[in-house]
Amino acid sequence: MKKIIYCLLPLLPLFTACEETVEIGKYDNWQARNEAFIDSLQQVYDAKTDAELLSVTDSRDKSQKIFFKKLPGSTIRENKSPFLTDSVHTFYRGMLI
């Protein structure tokens, strides 16, 4: 009986080392962080502290706004809709918050 205990004794640290730790990941609270970022953009837009920041209301969902900045030398006209034959050049840049 003692031999079995002596054989199992070295395995004891393996069972204690298998403790599950919960680490906070980089993307755990992504939704709250994104909503806070959009709210901060809305506050900057409402306060007019950044003159380059503009917004457009989404035509499908009137409660949603799309924030953007004009590029230098661009000819964006306010409150105009594109025609079917219009073309645009776009540059997308994403960022992780």
TrEMBL record:
GO terms for molecular function: peptidyl-prolyl cis-trans isomerase activity. Its EC number is 5.2.1.8. It is an enzyme of class 5 (isomerase). Keywords: Isomerase. This is FKBP-type 22 kDa peptidyl-prolyl cis-trans isomerase. It comes from termite gut metagenome. The lineage of its organism: unclassified sequences, metagenomes, organismal metagenomes.
